[in-house]
Each structure stands twice: as structure tokens, then as C-alpha cells.
Amino acid sequence: MKIPHKIFSVAIVISAAVLLPASSYATVTMTLPQYVQEILLNNHSLRAGVKGVEADYYSVLAAVGYQRPSTAATLSGSYATKQATEHNVTVGSLGLRLTQRIDISGSYKLDERQNILGYEVSRANFDDNVNTMIAAAEQTWWSAVLARENMKLQREILLQRSENHRVTMEKYNQELVPRLDIVRSDAQVVEAGSLVKNAETTYLNLLAELSYMAGGLDVEPVEEELQVPVFDVALNFDEALAYRPDVRAAKLTLERAKLVKSLTAKGLSPTLDFAFQFTPWSDPEAYATPNSKQAGASLTLSVPISDGNQTKYRVMNADRLIQAAESNLEALKESTRRDIAVAMNNWRNASAAEQDKKIQVERSEEELKITELMYSEGMGAQIDLINAQTAYQAVKTEYLDAVKNMYVALVALRKAIGDYSPDEDGSWSEARERYGRGNDILGETGLKTLRTDMKKLKAKNGKKK
Predict the structure, then answer these.
(1) Is residue 457 predicted with pLDDT exceeding 70?
(2) The domain containing residue 26 runs over which residues?
(3) Which of 20, 358, 395, 417 is the most exposed place for a label (fewest CB within 10 A)?
(4) Are residues 228 and 169 in the same domain?
């Protein structure tokens, strides 16, 4: 006895709904190197960081301004209707004054250097933000690529199960299989449709994250053959400590803390101030000091006696900051060693899993083909077909996860050794060339060069193809 094709029709509707091209926010397809360049140029957080570094540069110039001579012009005048025996008295003067504090304690160089180191720390922290940002971007990129592969896989499984359901419907109509097979195959189609929707949602969420990091540009990874990553990271702990920008920032912070302590210790040092005054005009001539068309100079020596132990406790404070900076530097060294070890372990585990899952996928795929053939010929049970499909789906998904974990481990390794940070040594002379004339640098992050050349990655993938 034949039954209405209601269940089969519902399955077809579900299949058509999930197989239609999903609404995508991605409008620009690009390669990974192009995407990284887009982030460097247009990521708003990085652009804000650039302006923050520029602001810190000018802050240094302003902070040492007191070391330079200062000049002032004063114009004064007064009018009185009665003064002693005189009536309607008018007086006035114009004076020029030049002052300069003479550094007799040697604090000027220390103060200038500690301010410059503050700028260098800010610059190193920005480089660390770049390292973190690009690492997160590449990890999201590969996650999106693998999510798209998983989405394709789930759609293929849905098609496969829809076809199996059609075959089961025909067999049932011919009274070759029980109704239970119809119920099972229909449930498999519904489950596959749900997995497709979940895979599409995951992919779209990752595209949204890629867009956010690219400054709002809708981005989608270019369609390329999926490549299994090759280990191409040169591991060297000492080089990692030299290149990692957060370690460089910690070293600069320690150096600055030592300078601050030396500078603070000069809190009770004597000061010598020089002043030069000239009065080009005064009426009456003796109204101002010095008198009209006369000049005067002075030296003032101040010797502090007591400051209520402020210098003592500030030195103690600076000493504790030095100890904190030393501990922080050692902690960063240990965390670098840990990050490299963990990422390396994850790489080995993911690489081994990829090899194992690859073999399992081949065997599971062969088993599925045989089971499908037997079922279509009426020589196999439906439960065997469902089990074979479920096993194939699981092992193929696990294989994609293993490949993704390999990419994630490589990204973590590159981040751990500072490969994503700009290739800069953080020198003040370079900063003077950049900002010395007070000009803003357009697209500053875009001018930075990553030590990990993304073009090499693209060339390797092209060579494999």
C-alpha cells in the first residue's frame, strides 16, 4: 500500500531552504596577506594606538621644556589723579626678562632620558598590541576557512541523507522496507538540516569578526584548496626574548625605573637660577628696576635643607618599583617559555591527529560507499547505513578540527616569538625622523613591516598547488 509523499515533500522543502545561498555580509574576497594589510591600515584600535604613540612623543618634548631658557616681556602702566603733591600722574615701563635654571646636579640628562624611555615603552606596548591583533586576526581567518569547509561538508551530508531518504521512500512504497526506516531516514534529514544551519551561523559569526578587525569592511576569505599547514617557525628562545615587544617594554620599564630612582635621589640637590633683565623704556626713568635703558643680571643659589622626608620615601617607592619591574620581566621570560612549549605541544598533538584522522576518513569513506551500495541493492540494513553516515560525518569533522588546531598552534607560536610585531628596535632617533617636525604620519601602521613575510606564506601555498 502506498502512502502520501508528505514526509518526503517536507524533507525536500527543508533541503531547498538550507541549500539556497545564504545571505552573506561578505562583499570583498581577499587573501590572508591582503587581509592583514587591510587591518594594519584601517583597524580603528591600531590607528588610535598610533595617535597615542605620537601624543607620547610630543609629551616628551613638552616635559623637558623647563630645561630650555624662557623669555618674557612685561608692559606695565598706571594712572593716579593725586599722588603726594603731584596731580594726574602717569607712569609705565616695558621690560624683557630671560631666565634659565643651570643644571649643577646633573638631573637634566636623567630626566630627559626617563621621559624618552616612557615614550619607548609606549611604542613597545603598541607593537605588542599589533602582535596580538594580527595573531587574533590570522586565527580568526583560519577558523573561518575551516568553518566554511565544515559548512560544505554538512551540506554534502544533507544532500546525501536526502537522497537516501528518497530511496527509502521508494522502497517503502514497494513494500520492501518497514515504516521504521522512513521515520529513521526522515529524522536523519532533519538532523542534517539543523547541522547545516549551525555551520552557516558559525561561519557568518566568524565573517562578522573578520569585518570588525578590518575596520568595518565586509571580508570573506578567497576560495582556495584547503592546505594542511607546514611547520615553518624557527624556534629560538633568546631570539623570542629579543623580538617580543612586551619583553622589550618590560626591559625599558626596568631601565626607566632605575633612572627615576637616581633622579628622585637628587630631590635635595641645590639649584642655581640665572636671570637677565633689560628695561628698554620707563617713564619716569627710575620707575622700573633696572632703570630705563639699563640691564641687570642675577644668580640665585638655593640649597634645600629638609623636605619632610619626601625624598627619602620617594626613593623607597622608586626602589620598590624597580623590584616590581624586575619581577615582571622575569615573569614575561617564563611566560614566553611556557607559551612556546604549550604551542609546540599543541602543534605536535594536532599534527598527529591530522595524520590519524586522515586515515580514518579514507577508511570511513570507503565503508560508507560500500554500505550505501549494499543498501541500494537491498542487501544491507538501514541502521548500518545510518551508522556509517554518522561515523563518516564525525571523523570528517574531527579531521577539519585537527587541521584548524594546527593553524591555531602555528599562530600561537608566531605570537609567542613576536613574529607579528613590527620590525622595530624602538629607537628615539627613528622617532625624531618621524615626528620631529610635528607632522602626523598618515597610515602609520600600514608603513610597518612584519618580520613574518605574508608573501612567503602565499608563495608556499602556490608552490604546493
Answers:
(1) no
(2) 15-63+107-269+317-464
(3) 20
(4) yes
